[in-house]
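Example A, followed by Example B.
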Amino acid sequence: METVAISSCGHWVAAGGEDTVVRLWDVVNYSGVPHASFQGYGNAWTSIVFSPDSTHIASASDDGTVWIWNIQTGEKKHVLTHGGSVKCLAYLSSGELLASGGKNCKIWDVKTGELEADLQHKRSVATIASSWDGMKLWLGTEDRVVHDWSCAANGQDTALVSTTAFSGDFQYVASSLGGNAVHLWETESGKRGPILDGHSGSIECLSFSPVSNLLVTGSSDGTVGIWDSRTGKSVKRLKEHSGVVTGTAFSPKGDQFAT
């Protein structure tokens, strides 16, 4: 599996990878087998996100397409043509818009499947995070820069990357810069916060708890780190994985996370 996501209602977990199938599990009434499976064209899935209302899944593929599925019916709602490998996805605000990142960042109308905006960058977009109100996007590009886009003005500020996430209160943004440490910044001031350093391999994924200061990181060293994001101190290190940890996501209540 290359990517994992948990729905905002806490009912569903979805995961996908090189076998081109997105598998959906019901974690409330867990049976040990997927509740549903969604089949792609034939390329690996690189990113999965749930819509804010937990009714749809968007999945990105190496073949340059983005698929949107209805969870209950299994119906394929849209296949969006981004072009080039798509590395990351994020829903904006109430879920009316979807951002996809690859050689550039594209904003889509989820209802119609129409392209709303094309945000150009010199280097490929590796990760996307959106603010709670959908008015701001943070794009991490392969030149190790986080770009701060205002969706209202369609303008851009460059702040100072392989993966990015907002804290539950949106006061902090965390990014890894392709190494084995995570850097934190205050979203309003841009002031640098603690540096979380402790993995022996590169950071492949990270996620904030929605209700606390905890931050979880997954690394190429096969370990999962749990951190206090305000102090920068390590809380716990998990070694259950036998290989690279490529995805992590918290449940809505923050009492569980998946890797």
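Example B, a separate protein, is given below in the same form.
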Amino acid sequence: AEEGEGLPWKWIALGGGAVIAAIVIAITKGK
């Protein structure tokens, strides 16, 4: 599959990682 086809897995992975990191930071600051 060439770029532009299917789902942007790289962006999904980066976005998911950012969300997880934000949650971890929020939990850490909350405790």
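On Example B: The chain is about 70% helix and 0% strand.
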